[in-house]
Specification:
This protein is mostly helical and 243 residues long. The protein has one domain (19-229). It has helices at 2-11, 18-51, 55-68, 73-102, 118-137, 144-160, 162-171, 173-200, 204-229. Helix 5 packs antiparallel against helix 6 (144-160), helix 7 crosses helix 8 and helix 8 packs antiparallel against helix 9. The longest helix has 34 residues, at 18-51. It is globular, with a radius of gyration of 21 Å. The chain crosses the membrane at residues 21-39, 80-104, 116-136, 142-161, 168-188, 208-229. Keywords: Membrane, Transmembrane, Transmembrane helix.
Length: 243
């Protein structure tokens, strides 16, 4: 029995060397982001193939509509799936954050306790400005300034409140996941609706349904992933020494 316990202890991630724990969470986060991006790209390619007259793609989409029994069923499912995919991206970001937190698990002080100096803030501000400009430049016309501002907030707010963000990642992973994924949902879903509104002329009720389903997918999957993470050390590191 003691040998069995020793074997389980050896395989438990809590007892892995620190570099291995860091690598595990970083690779897991990257893998989740790649998986979500792959599914999003596949769905987008499928939709574009149908728009360009691909027989198989159009037949498959027609089958989904017939199976659900509503002409807008596919669009509704796509929006819900987009929200779920953004939650998976957010969970991947959470795991990358855990890789950083795992590096300070055995420290006697809280991670990120040291304040940034002026030159570091200057670098962060320039980086946020460059990233905001880059994101804004590839956004839909009419949404570039808004999305650039959101991007800057996503970069700077966690830096300003980094201790609070680190605590939230450990205490409420479901909400960290949802907030991290929300930026991508805004990019893929909300901004798309804003840009296409003058051309598509969708009924406001239908727009609300689509965005509501996307938000429900984001929040629901984030909650599920966070619930699961809090119950397994493989997805949630133990608190750091300073916490």
């Amino acid at each position: 029995m003691s040998e069995l316990r020793a074997s389980r202890r050896c395989w438990s991630i809590e007892h892995w060397p620190e570099p291995l724990r860091i690598l595990y969470h970083a690779l897991l986060g990257a893998l989740l982001i790649v998986i979500a991006s792959t599914f999003e790209a596949a769905g987008d390619a499928w939709r574009k193939a149908a728009q360009h007259g691909d027989t198989a793609a159009r037949a498959a989409r027609a089958w989904v509509r017939a199976a659900v029994g509503h002409h807008d069923a596919l669009s509704a499912l796509e929006h819900a799936a987009t929200g779920a995919g953004c939650a998976l991206v957010g969970f991947g970001i959470l795991q990358v954050g855990y890789a950083v937190l795992a590096s300070g698990r055995d420290r006697s002080v809280e991670p990120f306790a040291e304040p940034f100096v002026a030159w570091q803030w200057a670098v962060f501000a320039l980086g946020a400005a460059a990233l905001s400009y880059g994101v804004g430049s590839v956004m839909y016309p009419g949404t570039r300034v808004l999305m650039g501002g959101i991007t800057a907030a996503y970069v700077l707010v966690p830096l300003i409140y980094r201790q609070q963000v680190a605590r939230a990642a450990l205490a409420v992973p479901q909400w960290f996941t949802a907030v991290a994924g929300a930026g991508f949902w805004l990019f893929l879903d909300v901004m798309w609706k804003i840009y296409h509104a003058p051309r598509v002329h969708e009924a406001p009720a239908m727009v609300a349904v689509h965005l509501g389903l996307g938000l429900a997918g984001l929040v629901g999957v984030s909650w599920g992933l966070g619930w699961f993470a809090r119950r397994t050390a493989w997805l949630h590191p133990t608190p750091t020494g300073g916490q």
